[in-house]
Amino acid sequence: MLLYLWVKSMKPGSKTLIYSGGHTHERGVGILFDVTTAKSLGSWCPISDRVVEAKLVAKSINLGIIQVYASTSDSEDVEVEGFYEEIEKAKGNLKSQDIKIVMGDFNAKVWDDRVEDVVEPSGTGTVNERGKRLIEWCQVNDFTITNTWYQNHPRRQWTWKSPGDRSRNKLHPHSEKIRKRCRNIEVTAGSRL
Prior knowledge:
Elements: E1 4-9, E2 15-21, E3 29-34, H1 35-38, E4 41-46, E5 51-56, E6 63-69, H2 77-92, E7 99-105, H3 129-141, E8 144-145, E9 160-161, E10 168-169, E11 174-176
Parallel strand pairs: 6-7
Antiparallel strand pairs: 1-2, 2-3, 4-5, 5-6, 7-11, 8-11, 9-10
Protein name: Craniofacial development protein 2-like
Organism: Plakobranchus ocellatus
């Protein structure tokens, strides 16, 4: 599969986008950095058109960001498992002492019930198969779905809404290795960059 890989400065002195994706508009994943954060970008690695990893270098500890865009909920199980293997490959590029954040669109819904050290009771109320798989992955890898741990206004929780604004979902876009490092998770409303 041919991947387009690039780093692009969107405006001089403004934002930097790293991107990994195919030649269609169906796939692709990227991370957008402001000018200050981009100066800390030590390295990045395109894993696939669904997973990209970036390392931000700091004085005391580095931050590894793994940005993902999961396949849809009607995808074959083999494709879903391949996606999680790609996340593992990205994690393998980071050092054990690096802080690791895996975030993006998992196409996963998790329920309101607490799952020890993974989910707190502010999920969507329903769960889908991708949500069950995400919870399982978090349990095995000692990650937390952090946006279920904070009670924010609903408009700061929704990460997806259907065309025509008929339904909204929290797709649980954020997992973090060590929950105590995270103070809050909020969704930025709209598409302002």
